[in-house]
Amino acid sequence: LYAASKGNQYKNKRVLMEAIHEKKAELNRQKLLVEQAEARKIKAKLKAEKKASKTKKERPVTEEA
Length: 65
Description:
This protein has 65 residues and is mainly alpha-helical. Helices cover 78% and strands 0% of the residues.
């Protein structure tokens, strides 16, 4: 971004500031999505562990015929 601003890529300061805010907003969106994905993974893992332990405890003893 710095090199682009020094290379006269931006028409004026307002356009430069808009580009900076767009970049920051995009970084914040990406960070939020990563955090949400991690939270979903953790939640799913806990749910799977809980289900596995529940089925392990509830499994009845089979009778021999």
